[in-house]
Amino acid sequence: MRKTDISRYKAKQKDSESSPLFYVKGVGMFALKALLTALLVIFVAGVLVCFNVLFYILGLAAEPSGIDLNARSLSLSSSVYVKNPDTGEFYEYSTLYGTENRIWVDFDRMPKAIKDAIVAIEDRRFYQHNGVDWMRTASAVLNLAGGDDSYGGSTLTQQLIKNLTEDDEVSINRKIREIVRALKVEKEYSKDEILEAYLNVVNFGGTCQGVEAAAQRYFGKSISECSIVECASIAGITQNPSLWDPLIYPENNYKRRNIILKEMVDQGYITEAEYKQARADSETLTFHDHSSDEDAVQTPIQIQNWYHDQVVFDLADDLAEYYSISRDAAIDKIYTEGLKIYCAMDIEAQKMIEEEALKLDDSYDEGLQIGMTLMGFDGRVIATVGSSQEKAGNLVFDRATMSTLQPGSSIKPVVAYPYAVNKNLLHWSSIVTDQPLDEWVYPDGTHGPNNWYGYYHENGLLLVDAIEWSSNATAAQTIKLIGGPQVAYNQAKNCLGFEHITEDGDQYAYASFSLGGMNGGTTVREMAAAYAYIGNGGRYYKPYTYYYVTDRNDNVIIDNRDPISIQAYSKETATIMNRLLHYNVNNCYHTSAAWANVYGWEIAGKTGTTDGDTNSWFCGASPYATLAVWTGFDEPQRISGYGTTLAAKTFSSVMSKYLEDKDYKEFTLSSNVVEAEYCTYTGRLATSICTDTETGYYSEDNIPPSCHSHAGGGVGEVETTSPEETSTGTIPTIIIDVNGDNTTAPTLPDASLPPEPTEG
Q1: Measured between alpha carbons, how far is 382 from 347 in angstroms, rounded to an integer?
Q2: Do the Cβ atoms of 544 and 308 come closer than 8 Å?
Q3: Exposure of 495 in the CB half-sphere (CA atoms within 13 A)
């Protein structure tokens, strides 16, 4: 056997590894692997992007286009229907007419020249493509990807869609949406129908929508009477109405119309002789503004009520979301496409609430305003009003839905306290700390929040008393107890419909949901909806003002008849908060809540004011509906007259009239909540040793222990009854057996109105 010198072999190997060639090969292999890895990553990412784009396009293809050219051509007014309260049948209540400066002209009444001029300059392959000119679109997409959106690449069909939807976002997604819609529209309508709609819809300078309005404005005659050069001058405006308007920039329009005339002859739409004559006419063409309406007969405007306005606003928002169009485009659809809107308004309640708003006593506070929303427990807006003054126009500013306000203490029963009760962190008679927070520091270095009554209760307050006192410090301490402002923010945003609160301003601020000092604010309608949980078993429903809407062919577009709810709190929490707020109205001596009472009815609710008494609220409910009332000024100032009592008094007046013809009933309460006497000193269940007791309401899994005898007496045994949950609100009663002394908790007494209180 031949021997091998291993050391020599290793030495050679070592020399080989140290050679330049070895390092070159190593670097090359590393670069190759890196390149292959990068290519693989790019490939996988590309596949994922392609799939996402494909799914996005398929999703768009399944969505309705939102384009009804036939309805536009007919310029149909829409109808609003309401229910007859006696028969339950819908009847036509009102009609929505458009007021835009647009006169629709049928295709066969338009001169050939205006059709040819538009096609020649805007989309020369209009009659050959299927809605999308792919070569121009590819160029536009490449330019857009490079940050240049000056090159449109849109066909007439795409331009029509952009005008009808007002979807003018500068993005690839918008371009894809436009392309998908264009392909769908081209399948649903003929080329002549599309071109007819385009010529009647797009803007031709000023307020002129469509070629007929343009012809009337610039030449004082119908489009059917316009010459070739006049048609070219009108066609030239639409690409950039502000730049090519002949009344403002006649020299620009001159250049533009001559370019169009050249395109028309080059593409064979007019003869050389027609071109020469048109060019000659172009040199002397003049324009005059014939849009003066001095001799026009002014049609009186019919003022619609506040609810009517809100239906239009709500439907516009819903249509904009449903069709992925702008809000203005949605309003245009409402007034021109013959929709049938089945309104949820209670006519008598609406008349009543508007009359009550006009009665608002501003004798001490000139200019005092009001906003009110009366709402069913399923989110149905029953009635609404947005001003204390006579309504002077349509679609005007509405303080019930458009004013973003600070709710003051009325926010306390919406997030802080019910959330803590829901998590078994507090119960009816829990002792809540009434002390400043370490996290709450004023500019002078002191801690807060301050209480409106000017001091803190050293030993805390029972929860029921904290609500009745409207303590700021206990509310802030409760926000800390539940996990801090972010927990409260998430609950308000995701479960209670507060759409105006902000991440930066409200998510980390203790004041937002303890004192109602919100950065983003809330609306009257949001507060009415947020309070509904106390009467419907803890659920939140998004407010709605119409049951459903159909198109002109009676196809249902949007349907609110089976509203979806969010379980914001448990039924037990809702019942406990209902009873707490009922107690607050009937046993209130520290705020103006008692003024909200309605004789013979159960009322639950809470007042709210802000610093300097610039906002006054009462939010609450009867067994039939919730009602939120706000009073204040458009420009914040102190309410000096009736101060914090005015909102509560208005609540009482409005709710009293609403309940006048209603059958008596009580709140529906959970049978899992038990009624028990508690010691007002300790918050524990009362025994024979307790000298002062009240009745409280507790969930079965969150009942306080009993008071012990100072002489070493035993803890009483707790027994409960369990009747069925009924619409009359029966709650089982806890019976405390201490040394054979059985006692039954008394019912809550009715309270007479206290002296005028002051609340911070």
Answers
A1: 9
A2: no
A3: 18
Token pair of 260 as six digits: 């169009």
Residue ranges of E strands in 386-527:
431-432, 461-462
CA dihedral 639, 640, 644, 645 (to 10 degrees): -120
Q: What is the DSSP letter of 700?
A: T
Answer left, alpha or beta for residue 341, where phi above 0 means left and psi between -120 and 50 means alpha: beta
pLDDT tens sequence across 419-441: 999 999 999 999 999 999 999 99
CA angle 312, 97, 358 (to 5 degrees): 55
> CA 465: distance to chain centroid?
35
- Residue 747 has a pLDDT of 31
C-beta separation of 324 from 66 below 8 A: yes
Helices (H), 472-515: 472-481, 485-495, 503-506, 510-514
Strand partners, 441: 447
- What is d(CA 185, CA 442) in angstroms, rounded to the nearest whole number? 61
Among 29-38, 254-263, 363-372, 670-679, the range scoring the smallest mean pLDDT is 29-38
pLDDT of 23 reads 53
* Mean pLDDT of all residues in 334-358: 96
C-alpha pair distances (Å), 518 with each of 496, 507, 512, 536, 737 = 15, 10, 4, 26, 48
Which among 350, 398, 388 has a CA at the least distance from the CA of 368?
Answer: 388
What pLDDT, on a 0 to 100 scale, did the predictor assign at position 710?
A: 38
- Look at strands 340-343 and 78-83 and give their pairing: parallel
| Burial of 646 per CB tally in 10 Å (0-12, 13-18, 19+) | buried
The residues, ordered by sequence, that sit 6+ positions from 42 with a Cβ below 8 Å of its Cβ are none
User: Across residues 133-144, what is the average pLDDT?
Assistant: 71
- Determine how many CB atoms are found less than 10 A away from the CB of residue 585: 27
Can you give the pLDDT at residue 277?
97
In sequence order, what DSSP letters do the residues of 22-46 get, joined into one string? HHHHHHHHHHHHHHHHHHHHHHHHH
Q: Could you tell me the two tokens for 573? A: 């929490």
- 8 Å CB contact between 568 and 589: no
Q: What's the pLDDT at 728? A: 38
pLDDT, tens digit, 9 for 90 and up, residues 228-247: 999 999 999 988 888 999 99
Distance CA 425, CA 704 (A): 11
76's tokens = 């149909």
Task: Name the pLDDT band for 183 (thresholds 50, 70, 90).
Answer: very high
**Alpha-helix runs per DSSP H in 305-359:** 306-323, 327-336, 347-358
DSSP string, 153-200: ---HHHHHHHHHH-----SHHHHHHHHHHHHHHHHHS-HHHHHHHHHH
Q: What does the pLDDT look like over 511-531, one tens digit per residue?
A: 999 999 999 999 999 999 999
Q: Which of 402, 390, 308 is nearest to 347 (CA)?
A: 308
On average, the pLDDT of the chain sits at: 85
Q: Quote the tokens at residue 415.
A: 């997030």
CA angle 531, 532, 535 (to 5 degrees): 115
Residues facing 76 on adjacent strands = 337
Between CA 647 and CA 627 the distance in angstroms is 11
Which tens digits make up the pLDDT trace of 471-494? 999 999 999 999 999 999 999 999
Residue 756 has pLDDT above 60, yes or no: no
Token pair listed for 421: 């009760």
Contacts (Cβ under 8 Å, ≥6 apart) of 315: 330, 334, 339, 341, 546, 549, 558
Angle (CA) 413-418-422 rounded to 5° is 175
Residue 40 CA to residue 210 CA, distance in Å, equals 53
Q: What angle do CA 160, 161, 165 make, to 5 degrees?
A: 120
pLDDT above 60: residue 726: no
